[in-house]
């Protein structure tokens, strides 16, 4: 990567909920037109200054013509649903930050992207779940979703997702741990949400630097929503930002630059792009009882063009499907005996897919 003299970096702050929230901001001088915005969020105990230094996004922003902002978390952390973790209104802060920067600078509000490492990666997923009307794509590095968030958050819209994670990450384990969901569970939610084909296309990226790790690229690109999922699985990689030493703990893969992979993935997405299906946040149909104690599930206020519904487990597997034979506004269906847990119920009409979470006890 070519490093150039930087002239457009500045610090800023906003008052949100009576608290001063700070950030570092860099806007490219190479382009006068409306620019995309990339929000880059630091890890736990790290800082906005730190992720700016190891990601080198400023240099990439200058050459590619985008704007990047590095918000600072209170206590060097982000509120992502962990017990005992931060209780700051970080969701509201990022929402307000987007509005502030869009008002002060020439930001393309249809092309706002978020990325982050570790705790910042967890925050990426929270924004995808709860601010999908403003986020065009996310790229999480070494961060998944908290179990509390997975159980309570539900995205209104499909979101393109890039996930980068090392298999030897002992801080945020690839297979999950305690309050941390696994990479597989995390991505399967979005594979289902984005209506992607279940099988990924897997390629092995060139092992350019022999530092003990390699990269597998998994692509779920055949998606009805036109919002693909990509996983860069770093075999033997640690809790780090690939391509940048000193970014975390463990083995750093140097075959790829996470920053360049992130920008090359997210830059093609815009909220203004039409979807193959229309996803609407206003799903008026209902499911009850929820939690479900027996095996009879009722769906009411169904749209007249409802076609089918199906249940998926957190791993993304379909456990039950039912075709609706008529346009009845309410149906009662006996489902097979399945394990207790949280499931996703998807309803397909001729125009949209909508999803609700249900608990089976």
Report on this structure.
- It is a single chain.
- The protein is α/β, with parallel strands linked by helices.
- The protein folds into two domains: 9-266, Alpha/Beta hydrolase fold, catalytic domain (Rossmann fold), CATH 3.40.50.1820; 286-360, Immunoglobulin-like (Sandwich).
- Helix content is 19%, strand content 31%.
- The protein has seven helices and 17 strands.
- The chain has helices spanning 48-55, 57-64, 90-104, 119-130, 147-152, 183-193, 258-266, and strands spanning 9-16, 19-27, 35-41, 67-71, 107-117, 137-141, 161-166, 201-204, 214-220, 229-235, 286-288, 296-300, 306-312, 318-323, 331-334, 341-349, 353-360.
- The protein has a ten-stranded mixed sheet with strand order 1-2-4-3-5-6-7-10-9-8, with helices on both faces. Strands 14-13-16-17 form a four-stranded antiparallel sheet, covered by helices on one side. It has a three-stranded antiparallel sheet with strand order 11-12-15, with no helix packed on it.
- A hairpin with an 8-residue loop joins strand 9 (214-220) and strand 10 (229-235).
- The longest helix has 15 residues, at 90-104.
- The radius of gyration is 21 Å and the shape is globular.
- Residues 1-6 and 275-282 have low confidence and may be disordered.
């Amino acid at each position: 990567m070519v490093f150039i003299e930087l002239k457009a970096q500045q610090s800023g702050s906003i008052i949100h909920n009576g608290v001063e929230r700070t950030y570092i901001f860099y806007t490219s001088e190479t382009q006068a037109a409306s620019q995309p915005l990339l929000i880059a969020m630091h890890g736990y105990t790290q800082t906005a200054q730190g992720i700016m230094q190891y990601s080198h996004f400023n240099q990439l922003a200058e050459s590619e013509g985008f704007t990047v902002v590095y918000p600072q978390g209170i206590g060097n952390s982000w509120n992502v649903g962990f017990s005992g973790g931060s209780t700051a209104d970080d969701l509201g802060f990022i929402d307000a930050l987007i509005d502030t920067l869009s008002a002060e600078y020439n930001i393309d509000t249809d092309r706002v992207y978020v990325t982050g490492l570790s705790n910042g990666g967890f925050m990426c997923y929270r924004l995808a779940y709860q601010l999908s009307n403003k986020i065009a794509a996310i790229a999480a590095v070494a961060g998944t979703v908290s179990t509390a968030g997975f159980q309570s958050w539900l995205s209104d819209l499909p979101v393109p997702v890039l996930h980068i994670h090392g298999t030897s990450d002992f801080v945020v384990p690839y297979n999950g741990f305690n309050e941390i969901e696994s990479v597989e569970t995390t991505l399967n939610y979005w594979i289902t949400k984005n209506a992607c084909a279940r099988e990924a296309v897997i390629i092995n990226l060139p092992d350019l630097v022999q530092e003990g790790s390699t990269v597998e690229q998994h692509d779920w690109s055949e998606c009805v929503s036109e919002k693909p999922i990509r996983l860069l699985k770093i075999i033997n990689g640690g809790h780090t930002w690939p391509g940048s030493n000193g970014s975390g703990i463990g083995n750093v893969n140097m075959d790829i630059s996470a920053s360049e992979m992130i920008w090359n993935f997210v830059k093609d997405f815009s909220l203004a792009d039409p979807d193959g299906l229309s996803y609407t946040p206003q799903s008026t149909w209902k499911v009850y009882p929820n939690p479900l104690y027996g095996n009879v599930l009722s769906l009411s206020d169904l749209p007249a063009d409802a076609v089918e519904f199906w249940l998926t487990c957190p791993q993304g597997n379909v456990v039950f499907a039912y075709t609706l034979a008529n346009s009845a506004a309410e149906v009662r269906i006996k489902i097979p005996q399945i394990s207790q847990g949280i499931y996703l119920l998807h309803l397909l009409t001729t125009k949209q897919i909508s999803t609700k979470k249900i608990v089976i006890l």
